[in-house]
């Protein structure tokens, strides 16, 4: 197959997933909340990336990053529930995919003072989007579902990141995964 055709097809698939990522939820429930992070490629990649990135950190930062993400995501949903709008939510989500992918691709280790606010800021956008897609129902059960799904995706990324051996080949593979995630973020941004 022609490489250009493959790249164009991949780009179109990734771009279309953003438009189709968030089906309307007529009745918000625990299960619709559980499915929301799994149904959007942008959310899925960002949440796996948080786990992958956290796995390569040291000490308490390994758990602080995913925890901060989940808590800030719930705060973002709370802001939405209060009617407080965030600017450029979809662009914020796409930027989270791009930046987290770049952090993994370059094996960057930010200090906790920089990493926590960065991850928390990204999570606010994800939480706000989750609330915007909620539909009718109670926020508590819906939020419990998307918080659990997010924690599971963080855990999956973390386990993969910790499972991969510290060989040169494995590091290259992880960096390639980060580059793929960053590339998807660039496509989501329309770059």
UniProtKB/TrEMBL annotation:
Protein keywords: Membrane, Signal, Transmembrane, Transmembrane helix
| Keyword Transmembrane in record | yes
So which residues are the signal peptide here?
1-21
Q: Does the keyword Ribosomal protein apply?
A: no
Q: Where are the transmembrane segments?
A: 37-55, 67-86, 98-127, 139-161, 173-190
Its name, as the record gives it, is Urease accessory protein
């Amino acid at each position: 197959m022609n490489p250009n055709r493959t790249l164009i097809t991949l780009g179109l698939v990734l771009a279309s997933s953003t438009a189709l990522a968030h089906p309307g939820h007529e009745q918000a429930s625990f299960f619709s909340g559980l499915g929301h992070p799994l149904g959007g490629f942008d959310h899925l990649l960002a949440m796996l990336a948080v786990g992958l990135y956290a796995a390569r950190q040291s000490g308490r930062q390994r758990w602080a990053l995913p925890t901060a993400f989940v808590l800030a995501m719930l705060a973002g949903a709370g802001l939405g529930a209060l009617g407080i709008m965030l600017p450029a939510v979809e662009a914020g989500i796409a930027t989270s995919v791009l930046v987290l992918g770049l952090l993994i691709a370059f094996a960057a280790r930010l200090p906790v003072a920089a990493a926590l606010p960065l991850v928390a800021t990204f999570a606010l956008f994800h939480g706000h989007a989750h609330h915007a897609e909620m539909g009718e129902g109670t926020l508590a059960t819906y939020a419990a579902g998307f918080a659990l799904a997010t924690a599971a995706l963080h855990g999956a990324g973390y386990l993969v990141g910790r499972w991969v051996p510290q060989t040169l080949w494995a590091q290259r593979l992880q960096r390639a995964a980060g580059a793929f995630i960053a590339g998807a973020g660039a496509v989501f941004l329309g770059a």
